[in-house]
């Protein structure tokens, strides 16, 4: 059948996996029963285990679901060490359910798939060798991609049942009190791992920094933890992030950032007490700096900043331009250090951040958000999952979640190299066009015609040309030409859920 955004969803997937097709972005707040965490009893104070192999032998069995977090990013060492131990022990048919998968994990996951250790994956995204392998049909069953808020919803409602959570932390005492703020591998907020710590049947902390009891402040508490494993190294802090993330010098990115700033400051939402979320890329960081100057010039302060946090956002907090930071993940050392030292930077879990079935999520309070795109089409649908070749090379992350803001801006170049960003139809729909308000490119902006109010307020900004999105698509096509249509087989390799758990799109296997 075709869903609301016109995508063909195979009937067998709807039936066999008990899915509903995507219908609307207006989710509301349904009355749903949450699954209470399973309480299991360990050996009291005797929680320390000597090796990863020992804990894997003790807990992991065929057919289980295991999870990890991705706060360590490219510096993560825990994932590969645990997965190697699982492969060596010959364990099979596991479901891998991490908060996301980073490049440093890719080759190990491919190895685990080939050995039969992993037969199912649910994650926010994947890239590199893993994305390529899955796109060409290596995995037995389709990957399920969920946004950060949707993953929290699925865990809380029992759709994802985690048997064992392996959580790398930069410190812990022997009973399992831990945080992300102290130690050589400190990374700040533990926002995504907090869901696993609360709901997994067994919780294993892995740390290279055992500290005296009681360890406070405790983001993960001893009441949630079954075992603590002392390891040689949790991660490489130089690859987790250090210092402020790079401020772009690329003229195209700077031009886009300037236009984004003009759109924000000319919108009705730029007023004292507004809230916002930006990303961690070069253009997004430039937006933060332009926005800072606009806030100073207009004597405007923000009530809060949300999402993955960077040093430029922390600078706004320290200057008094932002009252609070709500922090689910830190993208650099400056942001991580700030959470340790500034009580106005609040650690939040993924549920508080963006679960659509919550009594209230932080994203519901957002005024402005700036998001990126691999592709955006003439219906304003956005693809952040598959490349121009149809291969999986991205992540939903918080894209769908934050797109519920009052003003959702997509910041993207018109073309990348010889590949159009603005296209007639995106390869994969991740965020529906109903959620997108304005596209900003280096040549000008396009306003979603459904936003009549914004058409009035944003159409006469000096130095910001306004086009229809069809006109921008034609401009892109004139530069790069019309690409050859992609070819896929009939096999479904991935399912793209919308944040309420409905199916918004599927990804087919790339034809060799």
TrEMBL record:
Pfam families for the chain: CitF
GO MF: citrate (pro-3S)-lyase activity; citrate CoA-transferase activity
One Gene Ontology term, aspect cellular component: cytoplasm
One Gene Ontology biological process: acetyl-CoA metabolic process
Subcellular compartments: Cytoplasm
InterPro entries per UniProt: Citrate_lyase_asu, NagB/RpiA_transferase-like
EC number from the UniProt entry: 2.8.3.10, 4.1.3.6
Presence of the UniProt keyword Disulfide bond in the record: no
Entry keyword set: Cytoplasm, Lyase, Transferase
Reaction(s) the record says it catalyses: citrate = oxaloacetate + acetate; citrate + acetyl-CoA = (3S)-citryl-CoA + acetate
Keyword Transferase: yes
Name of the molecule in the record: Citrate lyase alpha chain
